[in-house]
Amino acid sequence: MEITELNEKIKNESAFVDTLFSEIGKAIVGQKEMVERLIIGLLSNGHVLLEGVPGLAKTLAIKSLAQSMHAKFQRIQFTPDLLPADLLGTMIYSQKDGNFSIKKGPIFSNFILADEINRAPAKVQSALLEAMQERQVTIGEETFKLDEPFLVLATQNPIEQEGTYPLPEAQVDRFMLKIKITYPKREEELLIMKQNVGGIISEIKPIIKTEDILRARKLVHDVYVDEKIEKYILDIIFATRNPEQFGLESLKELISYGGSPRATINLALGAKSMAFIKRRGYVIPEDVRAICMDVLRHRVAVTYEAEAEDITSENIISEILNKVEVP
């Protein structure tokens, strides 16, 4: 397909994104970047980890996204006494006919909000992460495919770390994006206060079908990525592994390990989804730069030396983005 033809097609097919933004905007003031990243996760078939203090509309965002579609939504509050069966489902014995029947758990939905994922023990976390990766669940001897689209939005609270079970690096890597949410601006908070105190929050109506999302996903894969952009993506990832090859010798002692091939794939997919949201049929360097921090912040691990100097993975990624040549 010619690039102009593809561009026109994507321009028409991505029209629903603007409608989606305005519909979700009825319930959420500001936080445009968070909503945008949720839609990118949805279009890229990836899961999202949100980090932010309580009360920043993390739950409301995914609930609103689910309400704007004809989709099933489940919120699971992760607690230390949660069991894998509470999540996946279990076999129930019926005394009446002497047989076991399967009772499916809340994971069988399109949108899952795993609230405070670091509050539940490792067994529960790994049950969720397995379902996220394999997109199927085994109960007893039967295996069930999960519905499409299937998006897990996990939240974690960065404040209290007592009594929590931090996700191991290998498991955090299963999330396509890790988003950090900050407080709203003063004028946004004024509007939030007025809306909630005055009880004027609009109800969100389902405006798109899950089939529209599945069709959009296929189109995201068709978005054109030039060779120069592919090289740029690889340069960014390789700079997290071998910074000295890119004139960043000072970072060598600060990075314990860089992005994996999964980071490369997700950066390319995220950039394609970003182009789709911006209603373009091709990726530009700005798409890569815009999504880069969310794709890499949980994939670049810093050394003890970096921690001692208060240097975060975000500082390292910013330095790489400033140094690596933009096509």
Can you give a write-up of this model?
The chain is globular, with a radius of gyration of 21 Å. The protein is of the alpha/beta class and 327 residues long. The longest helix is centred in the last third of the chain and has 17 residues, at 261-277. The protein folds into two domains: 27-203, 3-Layer(aba) Sandwich (Rossmann fold), CATH 3.40.50.300; 223-323, Orthogonal Bundle (Helicase, Ruva Protein, domain 3). Helix content is 46%, strand content 15%. It has 14 helices and eleven strands. It has helices at 3-13, 15-24, 32-43, 58-67, 84-88, 122-134, 169-172, 186-198, 210-222, 227-241, 261-277, 285-296, 304-308, 313-323; strands at 48-51, 73-77, 89-94, 99-104, 111-115, 136-139, 142-145, 151-156, 177-180, 255-257, 301-302. The chain starts with a helix and ends with a helix. The chain has a five-stranded parallel beta sheet. It has a two-stranded antiparallel sheet with strand order 3-4.
Summarize the entry for a quick read:
The protein is 46% helix and 15% strand.
